[in-house]
Amino acid sequence: MSAPQVSAATRSKVARSVLSRNLRLRPGERIIVEAWTHTLPWAVAFAREARRMGAYPIVPYEDEEAFWDLVDDGKLDVLGAKARHEWAALAQTNAYIHFWGPGDRVRLDRMPSEERDRAFAFNMGWYEAARKAGLRGARMELGRPYSTLARAYGVDLGKWTDQLVQATLVDPNDLQRAATPIVRALERGRRLRIRSPRGTDLTLGLAHRPATTSIGRPKVGDPRRPFDFLTNLPAGLIRVALDESVAEGTIVANRDCYYDSGRAAGGVFRFRSGKLVSAEFDRGQPFFDRPYRTGGKGRDRPGLLGIGLNPKLKDTPQVEDLERGAVMVSVGTNTFFGGKNASSFFGFAIDAGATVEIDGRTIHL
């Protein structure tokens, strides 16, 4: 199989936790659990637990092989067509579970961007229908582990999956308690300093901008965050848009940067007078350099600060910034989080375990 075996008991435990603690599913509500070939056992578990809670699930299924058959046959417009019958179902639905698909993300990443756009042209229409319905839901990273992607990352598929299982089970109330004092400090502060024995010593600016937290509960009806009615699981992240004019020093990464088809390791970012002057990686340099070349104005300016909160993650692919104590600094775009940097580029480095000071006061991470 392309996905590792997880016991039925574990799948049921995860499903109960997500439905009750994250989505707060109620008796009589209607829920859609989408499934791909590699996530069908997970979808079955969620449907079973929803029924046990007195809710009414349906499970639409997408077959991996059939998807790629249509890609090979050039039927991209069929894949991307608006499924109005699905939109009609969304109008009668309260909650939604999304598992990433197709499973072979490496092959998907190799598709020309124009072809990918055609194959997923329905996407914005889906979000519009879901928002109109007042849907609340979750995107499950448990749909991400797949044999081709694990090989590309050089990670063990079973270990990757187990970390996601354990991290998904973390109580959102615990994440909220951990986030509250950090958010308060970030929103009130002016200068932030990150230091570690690895060579990180970087000063950044804060601009009294609101920090965004991901604790694993959807946020419905917030026009400033139009996609947050689907929360990401596992959760555990704070992000804030940095002052785009302030950056001095160096951040030395001790966590990898996981991209859609590979990873970059050993990143070192150096800043001077508010600008990135060098970004070097021990391996995977092209993952940064290729999009940087076309990133436009602002690609070399500070973007976001991220602080991870989840205690069950460690250098975990695609959620590397959620690890508790992980400090992420990005360059490029930050407008989605209330900043002014409209570059198309997003590049980042993570130092997990670094010390963070805000206006001279050490913040407990």
Could you explain the architecture of this structure?
The protein is α+β, with helices and mostly antiparallel strands and 365 residues long. The chain folds into two domains: 8-168, Thermophilic metalloprotease-like; 173-363, no CATH class. Helices cover 32% and strands 25% of the residues. The protein has twelve helices and 21 strands. The strands form five sheets. It has a seven-stranded antiparallel sheet, with helices on one face. β13 and β14 (263-264) form a beta hairpin. α1 packs across α2.
Supply the helix-strand structural class.
alpha+beta
Unreliable segments of 5+ consecutive residues: none
The quaternary organization reads as: single chain
Main sheet specs: 7 strands, antiparallel
- Count of helix runs: 12
Determine the strand fraction and express it as a percent band: 25-35%
C-alpha-based Rg, rounded:
21 Å
Distance between the termini: 39 Å
Overall, the morphology is: globular
What number is the mean pLDDT? 95
What is the share of helical residues? 25-40%
